[in-house]
Amino acid sequence: MTTLAPARSPRLRPTVFVLAAVVSVQFGGALAAVLVPLIGASATVTMRLLISAAIMLAVIRPRLRGRSRAAWRSGLSFGAALAGMNFAFYQSLATLPLGVAVTIEFLGPLTLSAVLSRRARDIVAVAAALCGIVLISQALTVPWAELDLAGIAWAALAGAGWAAYILGSRSAGRHFDRLDGLAVALVVAAVLVTPVGVLTAHAPALTWGVLGAGVGIAMLSSVVPYSLELLALRAIPPKVFGILLSLEPAVAALAGLLVLSQALTGLQLVGMGLVVAASAVVMVGGGAPELKEDAAADPAAGPVTRGE
């Protein structure tokens, strides 16, 4: 009995870390959805990025001196992708249920992995995911005039930003140590979105309750999941990591139900299942070779596909 625990613990612990990160980020998204109606989507994402950047800078203390121009270009592009991804996602939360927004957004990294892998099976998986997106968007059951086309467009744009974030993470990982690139990108993203967030914020402006919610969102959506994922990627293959992340739409639907009372229809759940299954199929094959090589060189810069 005593010999089994040490053998299984090293395998179980990183899996628990990834699952905890998935739960953390999706319940952070649910908390953000609560704050969006109060201060606006732009102000909410501004609070998250500002607080996240401050915490990560204090914890990581990235080395800024002696960086090359290529490194700074990489950090700036990474930050721009991070800003666009989060800005679009929070705009979608203003009108879409959390599970729907995350599922549509998930199409971005899924498509990127399939394109880079160039496997016919992955292309078929993406096609199945597209069918799932049609179901979850209710395009077949709701009149076109009643569809939330703006919310769907924002979520799709967030998916494109997520794909750009993955590529930016790979590039930053080649120029920065550990999570230095992420800390720099968070600062860049915060600088980019703050003017819009300040100008569009509506009452109540900044109260202790709003500030506390902002800290909670920053911790749940950024600090905690990034840290847990970094620890997990040191112990499990990127393929396993990717498969576990494919559960995010389902966890988002659960968070939306428990926190926001957002129940999905049967067809929407079927569509979500198609997206989750398609993501698992793509990841089981090992994902794109380029992503796997980057992860081996720098676990923090490879397959960390945190989108919201």
Describe the structure.
With 308 residues, the chain is mostly helical. The chain is built from 13 helices and no strands. The model is unreliable at 1-8 and 287-305 (pLDDT under 50).
The counted number of beta strands is 0
Rg measurement, Å: 19 Å
The coarse silhouette is globular
The fraction of residues assigned to DSSP E strands is under 5%
Strand-and-helix sequence, N→C?
A: HHHHHHHHHHHHH
Overall helicity: over 70%
Give start-end ranges of low-pLDDT stretches: 1-8, 287-305
Distance between the termini: 42 Å
Q: What is the arithmetic mean of pLDDT?
A: 84
**Structural class from helices and strands?**
mainly alpha
Report the total helices.
13
Which sheet architecture does the biggest sheet show?
A: none
List the helices and strands and how they pair.
Layout: H1 4-39, H2 41-60, H3 69-93, H4 98-105, H5 107-117, H6 120-136, H7 149-175, H8 180-200, H9 208-233, H10 238-245, H11 248-260, H12 266-284, H13 289-297
Helix pairs in contact: 1-2, 1-9, 1-11, 2-3, 2-8, 2-9, 3-7, 3-8, 4-7, 4-11, 5-6, 5-7, 5-12, 6-12, 10-12
